[in-house]
Design goal:
The complex is a heterodimer of chains A (195) and B (146). Chain A contains 5 helices and 7 strands; from the N terminus they run H-E-E-E-H-E-H-E-H-E-E-H. Chain A is an alpha/beta fold and 195 residues long. Chain B contains 6 helices and no strands.
């Protein structure tokens, strides 16, 4: 064997950088996934509601406290929060104080007592205070199903025309209210849903 | 033996944990029900179908599917009914539309790309065409190989 240095390898050195392409692509993918996973608001359970921008579903149920019939038209005319809660839901207890506070500040909240025992629910409101303008008794979860409720608590942001502009899954708190939700609530007073 | 093991591993992912049972008028309805709860996803869970989940919402949705089947609704109507409330998330078999087109096409594209790369590697690795080498080079090659 003479002069092995002179023999060129079959793949020319010019293209050897291409060998790193898969590695670069891999790191770029890692970057994309990490940026989503590490972002503060990311939660795989935060699915956008299928009803966003759509009208509140029709329902004919009774008021938990007065036992009088209540339907969709009773809720129209003002921007409001529809808060799905139940006494079997521990997180609902966590957010209850904050709901009371919002009610004092003048935020209109309607409760949906979801698949609950009515007497337990009334007891709960007597003990912890009642932040709700009305409480819809949804013992069978009929309204919950039409709203696409996955679990309690969930809060729907509805404008005066009855259009669902936003759905928040999980508790309402001072932090997330001041962070983003208050702006969404204030946006409800305009005609269309404001993002 | 290996086949059996593969089968067990494949099927164990599909194990069903349904507790309540519904009785249907016809075996066809029962089959439709089983198909639907296998194909639809529990909206609360991250990756479980309705048949595999014991979340309360999965139980509710199984009952709704039972109710709708008893009302003589078709499978497609039931799927649409649930998608209208819970969104496309509940479908494990998403439709081809503008939003999902990329999901359907990217694997196909990657498959073609992979095929192309394999083809290039195969052809680049062999020197069938020896006429590219000069006589001198051929002689050197023979020397080196011998």
């Amino acid at each position: 064997m003479q002069n092995p240095d002179k023999i060129e390898s079959p793949s020319s050195p010019k293209r050897s950088w291409m060998l790193y392409l898969p590695l670069i692509a891999f790191f770029m993918l890692c970057g994309v996934f990490a940026s989503v996973l590490l972002s503060k608001d990311y939660s795989p359970e935060n699915l956008p509601s299928a009803l966003l921008g759509k009208s509140l579903p029709e329902f004919h149920l009774t008021d938990l406290l007065t036992e009088k019939p209540i339907s969709k038209k009773d809720l129209l005319g003002q921007p409001l929060l529809i808060n799905v809660w139940a006494t079997w839901c521990p997180s609902c207890k966590v957010e209850h104080d904050f709901l009371n506070q919002l009610a004092v500040e003048g935020v209109k909240i309607v409760g949906v007592n979801y698949k609950d025992d009515p007497s337990d629910a009334i007891q709960w409101l007597n003990d912890l205070g009642n932040p709700y303008q009305r409480v819809i008794k949804d013992q069978e979860g009929v309204l919950g199903f039409d709203l696409g409720v996955v679990g309690a608590p969930e809060t729907y942001f509805v404008n005066a025309k009855g259009t669902i502009c936003y759905k928040h899954i999980g508790i309402l708190s001072k932090q997330n209210w001041e962070g983003q939700l208050q702006a969404i609530y204030q946006g409800l007073s305009s005609e269309a849903c404001v993002k | 033996m290996r086949l059996l093991l593969m089968y067990v591993l494949l099927v164990s992912g599909l194990s069903e944990a349904v507790i309540e049972t519904y009785t249907f008028k016809t075996p066809e309805k029962q089959a439709q029900y089983n198909r639907l709860i296998d194909e639809l996803r529990c909206p609360k869970c991250q990756n479980q179908n309705l048949s595999g989940s014991n979340a309360p919402i999965a139980q509710d949705l199984r009952f709704q599917i039972y109710r709708l089947l008893e009302e003589e609704q078709s499978e497609q109507e039931i799927i649409d009914f649930l998608v209208a409330r819970y969104g496309e998330f509940v479908r494990y078999d998403p439709p081809v539309n503008a939003k999902t087109l990329a999901l359907w096409l990217i694997p196909l594209f990657l498959l073609l790309l992979g095929g192309f790369v394999i083809y290039r590697i195969k052809t680049a690795g062999t020197f069938k065409d020896q006429s590219l080498l000069s006589d001198d080079e051929k002689q050197r090659l023979d020397e080196m190989l011998s």
